[in-house]
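quick one, 254 residues, struct below
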Amino acid sequence: MNIQWNSKNYKEQFSFVPQYGEAVINLITREKGCRVVDLGCGNGTLTKKLSDAGYDVIGIDDSAEMIALASSEYPEIAFRKENALSFELQEKADVIFSNAVFHWIDREKQEELARNLSRQLKLSGELVCEFGGYGCAEAVHSTLEACFRERNIAYPRTFYFPTIGEHAPILEKYGLQIEYAVLFDRPTPQQADDGLIEWINMFVKKPFENMDWNVRNEILNDTKSRLKEKLFIDGKWYIDYVRIRIRARKVREM
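---
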């Protein structure tokens, strides 16, 4: 994944991430008691929800900080630090569940991801996931990009926000047949008073790497000013999220 997490801040100010993911659990059609992997489990909130729903669940995440937090919060659940592209299961899963993860994996690595997901699923097993879709947070990213450009600084687009038509063939190539897919807008309120800046600080790290602190603050304040009319609504900052939800079934071995 192309980001490093502040696990404490994530838990305190961005609890909406797992909260919205609870609805994705309802896409699972396999029976209770089956083996479920929560891939990119973060602080373990949804892993616990899956366990409480009756699934035999394991949480996997590439962040040591997140795994440490999840293990301390839910010691009764197994958590492992592993990478989505290379994790291996001794016993293949009935379901791989993932919320808000795939968009952090570089575009050129999406086939590698799909290949490994297929390898770790049983035949007829399910992939159930939600992640950022085409146009996700575009108001924020395009405004930041303009502010960078005006200062002759490149703004790298490190996120993978595909259409359904872009992503479905990648899954199908590796034996994962799409059963359900939807792309939808979900404007998302932020919990912090200065929610836009907190969101950028948490989720838009790479473009600001090694930047002079004064220039960084100038860009952040400029972005905030330009977006206030559009994204500050009734006393709250909103981020213009777009999401993809998918359920795919493994129909052939690779």
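Strands lie at 35-39, 56-61, 78-81, 93-99, 121-132, 176-189, 232-233, 236-250.
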